[in-house]
Amino acid sequence: MAKVRALKCKECGAEYPVEPLHVCEFCFGPLEIVYDYEEIKKNISREKIEKGPKSLWRYIDLLPVDKATVGLSAGFTPLIKAENLGKLLGLNNLYIKDDSVNHPTLSFKDRVVAVALSKAKEFGFDTAACASTGNLANSVAAHAASAGMNCYVFIPSNLETNKIIGSLVFNPTVVAVDGNYDDVNRLSSEIANEFGWAFVNINVRPFYSEGSKTLAFEVAEQLGWKIPDVVVAPLASGSLYTKIWKGFNELQEVGLVEGNLPRMLGAQAEGCSPIYQALKEGRDFIKPVKPNTIAKSIAIGNPADGPYAVKVAKESRGDIQIATDEEVIEGIKLLAKTEGIFTETAGGTTIAVLKKFAQAGLIGKDEVVVAYITGNGYKTMEVLEGKLNKPIHIKPSLIEFKQKVIGEK
Amino acid sequence: MNSMKLKLIYPEEKIKEPILSKLCKTFDVDINIRKANVQEKVGWLELELIGKEEEIEKAINWLTDQGIDVSPIEGQVFVE
Questions:
Q1: Domain-terminating residue out of A143, A171, A203
Q2: Is residue A36 part of a domain?
Q3: Do A195 and A262 reside in the same domain of the chain?
């Protein structure tokens, strides 16, 4: 495959063949895909992309996959001009990239999993696996089902089963491990190294994470081949945030867009903010934390790409901010009532942090701002229990309707 | 022989203790340190732990009991 040259260690630069590897043998640094941009430049054009499929696969020239076989309709989600929210925040050019309607499982994970499992099939894997109870498990189980792959999902055993119905429906083998999250992590890592399975965020992670770049590609195309001035995105492992940055860099590299790169603003929940803390304390490494937040989909206490996210925040002249649980809920409600979009807690965190940056005057009123909404609120409705207006109860009487609802005397 | 790639993070109060030396004397494991950064307040090490499966498991449990944060080199694998 000419467009992909090798895998390369992000730390020491050692190069490896394009195989399901993820850690440098010498220094244990993570591996990343190296492309031959000169070669890609010869084949890529705005016109070719615009004629491509209405999915993330229209950018296959910048993805580490030869042929799309899994997740054919993932991506190409709406970019919405958020007039109402923009007015409220004093931003004239605010856009929402709405991955809450990604296909098939309503989160940005459909992008990364589509790329990971397409590559896994190219490598000849017949089994997909992940450790998750949320969006990632939903997406891996759904894509594995449609691709005819076996699927294993690992969870801690003390979890209520109703938490994983959204994954169980796709009929994966769910393994409930006696132990805490750390135990599940270590076991998953051991299994990935021993079994010939595609563990999406372990041994095929270099390919998996590349799927997030399409969040940058799509936004640029949807803005008329322009790079936004400011990006606001949630930070969990740090992978999405760093890959959005890589995506905009690549578009420039291959000559599809011109202009300045965006300032990357990141959002974490206060109850799990190891990347924010590393940035503020000027550390080049992450101190793991025990998550304590309602924003579970971004509550990663020991984020693998944390140090790289800190680097991107600095390099892009961006910043990272945090939101309390209350602010997260307010963020969800604000987006819903202004733009009619129901997001989950990660999106609530992003909107809360966007509001903070806007109110602090850190975003110019005419700057083009894109906030990434990565998941769907219908999956985690329990976080809003008791936080919303109650229905007005009336008898089936017109008089009562007029009195209690309309407020007539 | 099995091996596991791990990241160890030491809290401040453990930095001055010869934890890895004790580990190798207590369990039948070898260690191969690849990267480390030990400072006054915090220290971390990335290493390979080599030995029989059950010895590795015992060694990890012992490290955790000593208050060391032990995680796979991939960071946190589990996603909500």
A1: A203
A2: yes
A3: no
pLDDT in tens, A261-273: 999 999 999 999 9
User: What's residue B38's pLDDT?
Assistant: 87
Task: Please report whether residue A321 resides in a domain.
Answer: yes
A230 and A259 fall within a common domain: yes
Q: Predicted confidence band at A298 (pLDDT cuts at 50, 70, 90)?
A: very high
pLDDT at A1 over 60: no
Three-class SS state of A180: coil
Q: Decide if B35 and A27 are in contact by the 8 Å CB cutoff.
A: yes
Tokens for A177, please give them. 């491990």
Asked whether the predicted pLDDT for residue B16 surpasses 60, the reply is yes
Nearest CA among A164, A287, A295, A210 for reference residue B71? A287
As for the ipTM of the complex, it is: 0.89
Angle at the Cα of B30 from the Cα atoms of B28 and B32, rounded to 5 degrees: 165
Contact A336, A328 (CB under 8 A): no
Contact B70 A182 (CB under 8 A): yes
Minimal C-alpha gap between A37 and chain B (Å): 28
The tally of domains found in chain A comes to 3
Amino acid at B16: K
Same domain, A255 and A277: yes
Pick the residue of A160, A193, A374 with the most B CBs within 10 A to test the interface with B by mutation. Answer: A193
Residues A297 and A374 placed together within one structural domain of the fold: yes
Do A30 and A208 touch, CB atoms closer than 8 A?
no
Same domain, A95 and A144: no
CATH number, domain containing residue A196: 3.40.50.1100
For residue A302, the chain B residue with the least C-alpha distance is B76
**Which residue segment(s) compose the domain that A20 sits in?**
1-43
Nearest to B34 among A28, A202, A304 (CB): A28
Query: CB within 8 A of A6, min separation 6: which ones?
Result: A15, A16, A17, A18, A34
